[in-house]
Amino acid sequence: MTEQIDVLIADDQDLVRTGFAMVVGAAPDMRVVATASDGAEAVRLTAEFRPDVVLMDIRMPRLDGIAAARAILDGTDHPPKILALTTYDNDEYASRILAAGASGYLLKDTTAEGLTAAIRTVHHGGSVLAPSTTHRLVTARRPDPPRPSALLDNFTSRERDVFDLIVAGASNAEIADRLHLAEVTVKTHVGRVLAKIGVRDRVNVVIWAYQNGAGQRPG
After folding, report:
1. Which of 7, 42, 101, 136 is most exposed, with minimal Cβ within 10 Å?
2. Whole-angstrom Cα distance, residue 68 to residue 71?
3. How large a percentage of the chain has pLDDT more than 70?
4. Phi, psi at residue 81, to the nearest 5°?
């Protein structure tokens, strides 16, 4: 039986909410459990309906999507995945909501297939970024980044292997296959990698790696 993904849609435009709900509702493995017209309502309804994924607009009244994402992710031991959807291809918005813990950042001009694929990706622990955003964020290196070896000295050999595969875009299952590990062991290593470099999720591992000159293992 196909796993069902419960989705909450937060957007201040009624037509946008309706359109996204139609796309999500048409997917055989998804259902819309609630819709919210602002960030405060998104926080309240997330606590009530406990969705797996929240589609979060960024610019909304009362509480914007960045603050709402932070409140949702900090408010429970088992938070949903946050997928930001916005009209604005804006690096500041992307950086702030990803730093708040969102697992993805897409523009609203994405296709229906792209949206449902992104929901599945973040639900299963992956990350999604709009291509234009990815390029700018990972090429925005700090002026004088520390040497990668100095940054990663506190990794074990296995953690460094896992780090490299995360940066390469591998899922937990793919990492497990490549390193001949149980997937639960991979999850443990991923958690340690996140903790040691001080980020909340895989997408920020990738951004951190490239901004600090650690995108590839020194050869």
Report:
1. 136
2. 5
3. 84
4. -80, 140
Indicate if the alpha-carbon torsion angle 17, 22, 28, 32 is positive or negative: positive
d(CA 144, CA 165): 25
List, in sequence order, the alpha helices (H) in 100-156.
112-123, 131-139, 148-151
If one counts every other C-beta atom within 10 angstroms of the C-beta of residue 38, the result is: 18
Cα 142 to Cα 8, 76, 209, 211, distances in angstroms: 36, 33, 11, 6
Q: Is the pLDDT of residue 51 over 80?
A: yes
Joined together, the tokens standing for residue 122 give: 């973040």
For 124, the token pair is 């299963």
Q: Which domains does the chain have, with CATH numbers?
A: 5-136 (3.40.50.2300), 150-212 (1.10.10.10)
Report residue 64: phi and psi, to 5°.
Answer: -75, 170
pLDDT digits (tens, 9 = 90+) for 115-165: 999 999 889 887 787 755 555 555 554 555 555 556 678 889 999 999 988
Q: Which amino acid is at 213?
A: G
Q: Assign 23 a pLDDT band (cuts: 50, 70, 90).
A: very high
Q: What is the pLDDT of residues 95-126, one digit of tens each?
A: 788 878 888 888 898 899 999 999 998 898 87
75 and 43 in contact (C-beta within 8 Å)?
yes
What pLDDT was estimated at residue 101?
A: 85
Residues 6+ apart with CB under 8 A from 44: 36
